[in-house]
Amino acid sequence: MEKTESMHRNDIIDICKRVHANGWVAANDGNVSIKIGPDTVLCTPTGQSKGYLTTDQLIKVDMDGNKIEGSLEPSSEIKMHLDVYKNKTGVNAVVHAHPPYATGFAVAGVALDQCIMPEIVIGLGSIPIAKFGTPSTMEIPENIRPYLKEYCVFLLENHGALSVGSDVFQAYYRMESLELFAKINLVARLLGNVNVLSEDNVKKLIKVRQDFGMPLENYPGCRVDGRFIKEPATVVEALSTKDLINEVKASTTGKSEETDRTLKTTLDRNQSPNISQGLSRADKIEISIKNLIELITIVVNNVLKAGK
Ligand SMILES: [Zn+2]
To answer: Which residues are known to be catalytic?
Structure first.
């Protein structure tokens, strides 16, 4: 069911209260909007705390920022919201706030672009920093625009953060993910070590994203050693024949009764798709005649040994 304007008004107030309660804004900071029609955007008014807004205080503007309805004035940052709607398809909501951990990174000039946590790699890829722009001018939207195609969450240099979504809850949750990621990242830095995921592991996570049905087109990826990884793991992680034989051999030393089970497990591991771990397994393995004979010999010898 399509939401009514009244429902959208309630949603904005709901999100504003969460943003305020989370401590992501002080005084009149922050703004939230929803595109409710082809040429209509519902947004928060300027000069009001997000913690105490009421639905009748929200403002309706057209796509050029002209006020259509409301007694207060629209947010001074409405230009930033409208520019996002004009330049990124599929976006129907924008949230802007100053979450303190994320904003700390924006002030430090440190992008949250390393491949560190699975949820961020899968959901967002990474978070860039848009260059500083004077609030309420076109400088901010112009500096965000280069990142719009690939990203859904942005740090605004020396200012705060912006998130976009197909609805206002998605935009809000993306901001929540950003802030928690920034907090965890800071704690790891304070502890003196940030382990970046390996390229192989990142590719497996991107494969999980693909398996979830999330698009890889315009996916920004994340950084490992100065390089952005955007491609999913394509191959198939079948054990090599050599590994297979070594595994069987290893399992037979002193544990011959377990050989068959080990071999079976090994083969199963090669044959069954393991979606829960996000790994694609081959549905067949290749083995040379020589290696097959070696493998069978080991198994038969163990069966004979076990029978004695
Ligand atoms: Zn701001």
So the answer is: 77
